[in-house]
Design brief:
- Chains A, B: Residues 2-62 form the HTH tetR-type domain.
- Chains A, B: Residues 25-44 bind DNA.
- Chains A, B: Keywords: DNA-binding, Repressor, Transcription, Transcription regulation.
- Two copies of one chain form a homodimer.
- Chain A has helices at 5-19, 26-32, 47-61, 71-87, 92-101, 107-119, 124-153, 163-179.
- Chain A is 67% helix and 0% strand.
- Chain A is globular, with a radius of gyration of 18 Å.
- Chain A binds a DNA duplex through loops.
Chain lengths: 184, 184
DNA sequence: ACCTGAACACCGTTCAAGT
DNA sequence: ACCTGAACACCGTTCAAGT
């Protein structure tokens, strides 16, 4: 059997979802594909790049149709889509958030948010600050939520998992600030 | 020589600051202390706990006097203190942010923010949502800023590092939303 | 209480060689 | 182009034993 890069990424997501990020090793993935570990380096230059590709694929799979007409409703829609996409896979939020911290992946959601804020009539500087703030909120909240959810299902009752209500409320707080800065 | 837990944490921070998070291994730290790796487990149950202790110590070392009288200026002050504390050590933001995602460390800053928001006259629910949103913004922004700074100093000109202006602007956006929700 | 020595069960990555 | 086989230089953690 001969594989291509997309096969490797797809199988990596299966391993991630079934066994978790700490079990997603290059050796484990190679074994899952029936390959020697060294064979993976023909498809991917290193593990970090593979994780960035996984992050992008997870977000791509969560894509939905845009419905909202108003720019601020569209922001909420984009953020909710991001959250749902990450929650769909075990440790999905951690993978995406980490990749984003190091400037990898998640470039498309950033572009969409930037567009929405620009449509809202915000200045160039505020578009950038707002986009980054929204992404940090979404990634931070979802990573914490998923960690709490997984900790809860593994035993400890720990803390409240946050939930979609808390999530939207946080986004709305930020949107308030953005709305009040629309030039008119 | 006999060590205590605090010696181990202190030396770990030195190793972190000098060689970076990826070089902070239990074996490396043990060698630095002139110990066998197994000796560390007398002071700390595992690496995760050590990292949480490092996160707390980094934040504790950055503590400053509170000056602002108004609740919203106090929020800005707390957030700026957190950012400075994390930026003071190599990979400090990543260590603190990761610990926070898993519900470890950073409990004191959370308490201080909660107090400030309560003083501002916000409802219990909003206090929680606001505190979490502020922390995600601070951790997310600072981690990204530090990663970009370190990438820049290592060669690539990559992206803009954000800076304190962008940071405060993001916090102010959120504060706008919080201010508008003060019950009166 | 704190530490050594040895082991267990792994990692990511490189590189010559094969088809 | 894609893969094997072998190696290099490491990991975190456990556990019996020592003082």
């Amino acid at each position: 059997m001969r594989y291509h890069r997309r096969d490797v990424v797809e199988r990596a997501i299966e391993v991630l979802d079934e066994y978790g990020l700490e079990s997603l090793t290059m050796r484990r993935l190679a074994a899952e594909l029936g390959l020697q570990p060294s064979a993976l380096y023909h498809h991917v230059p290193n593990k970090q790049t593979l994780l960035a590709a996984i992050a992008d694929e997870i977000l791509a799979r969560g894509k939905r149709e845009r419905r909202a007409a108003e720019w601020d409703r569209r922001v909420v829609e984009i953020c909710a889509e991001l959250r749902d996409a990450m929650l769909a896979y075990r440790d999905g939020a951690e993978v995406v958030a980490t990749a984003h911290t190091f400037g990898l992946g998640a470039s498309e959601p950033a572009t969409q948010l930037r567009e929405a804020l620009r449509d809202g009539g915000l200045d160039g500087d505020l578009v950038e600050v707002g986009t980054r703030a929204l992404l940090h909120l979404v990634f931070g909240h979802t990573a914490e939520e998923q960690a709490a959810l997984q900790a809860a299902s593994a035993g400890a009752i720990d803390r409240d998992p946050g939930g979609p209500g808390d999530f939207e409320q946080g986004i709305e707080l930020l949107l308030d600030g953005l709305r009040s800065r629309v030039r008119r």
